[in-house]
Prior knowledge:
171 residues, alpha+beta, six-stranded mixed sheet, 3 helices, 6 strands
Amino acid sequence: MSSNVTQLEARVVALEHLNAIRELQYRYWHSVDRQLLDDVRDCFVDNGVTIDMEGVPPCKDRDDFIKVLKANGGKPGFYSLHTGKNPFVKITGAVHAEGVWDAFFVGIDVPDRLTYQLTGQYNCGYVLRNGRWYIQRQVFRQTSLLINKLDENGAPKAVTFGLPDPKVFDK
């Protein structure tokens, strides 16, 4: 009987970890969209992080990534929404986990009269430190991209259509 209880406890702990990882990833997207950059920074482990996001300049650490976010979305009149779907998250060790997420991003850059629609996939590695999960590796690859420039009458003209753009946010 105690074996069943032990197994049940282990399953409950695993489910709690999986839920915490999902909440971490959702918190990351939520914080990016609201430009809560300290919260974004806090989603990543403080050292040994890998951030490799197609369309974003290379980042050597989480502070580098925050600079990119400030430069590209941290301006008045830029609004965005990230959604992550179809997660495959698994615990891979005592303090490690991996996750794959399909992502959809929309953005409106009012000052530059641009709209963005982007799909892709996040491949993430997570690490448990002091009872809390952090993103240790975040790799993003685009699968489609649409950028429209709106003329003075609001009519859109496609700037980029369909194919990924390795420099979409490399400004």
